[in-house]
Amino acid sequence: MNTPKISRRSLITQGGTLAAAGVVLAACGSEPSGLSRVGLSPSTTALPEVHVSDVVLLRTAQSVENLAVAALSDPAMSKGNAATKAAIAVFLEGHRANAAAIAPLIAARGGEEFGKPNTRMMKNYVSGALALIAESDQAEADVIAFAHAIEGVVAATYQAFVAWTNEPALRRAMMTLAVKPSEYAVVLAQMVSPGTKGVSPAVDETGGPVVSALPTKYGSLGSFDATIGTMTEAGARTVVTMETPSLNSLEY
What we know:
By secondary structure, the protein is mainly alpha-helical. The protein has one domain (54-196, 210-247): Ferritin (Up-down Bundle). It has helices at 8-28, 54-72, 82-107, 119-134, 139-164, 168-177, 179-192, and strands at residues 5-6, 224-228, 238-242. α2 (54-72) runs parallel beside α4 (119-134).
């Protein structure tokens, strides 16, 4: 069974493989071919130097909160049952409150708040996942699974940024802001697997990972998977893997 898997790391791996292949081909073809070049070779532009400041981290955290708002308020996410809809309504207010709380922190440090969802994460993960849920024959379960992944990513973003943040007061703010999405992830984990106990990772009878409210002593900084969408003829569903912002998805 081949289950399609979408993740940043898989894209990077594939890109690295192609780059390596290009180097090998270039080395093998170092002898003059005798062919003339037509036109001018394209010039290269150096990447701009950027500084990951505390303001950049705050803007990115705000963009991730806006991402959660955009994802959870999408029409595709309205396909859950009454209990799921009620829970998501609470989560939405929490994310809006967090995004609003970040705004004065940015302004106090001379920055400009970021009022949109995270650009790359929206493009790479969320838009495609919502499209899958909209067409899914198991949309009710997919809504919970995807919401759980979203909340895990938001909480993990704050946890990761604590180590990157320079100003001690902001580290405390990051940890405080992480509380709500962490609680939401716990609630959703219980909706996926009611009665889940323990803090150790586990697998079910098929070898698949069991969604746990407390997967480890500390929050995970790894990826968060959501198996969603209509099952293919081969018996596979799409696994969307969401990850915390990397250097190319920070909002500078």
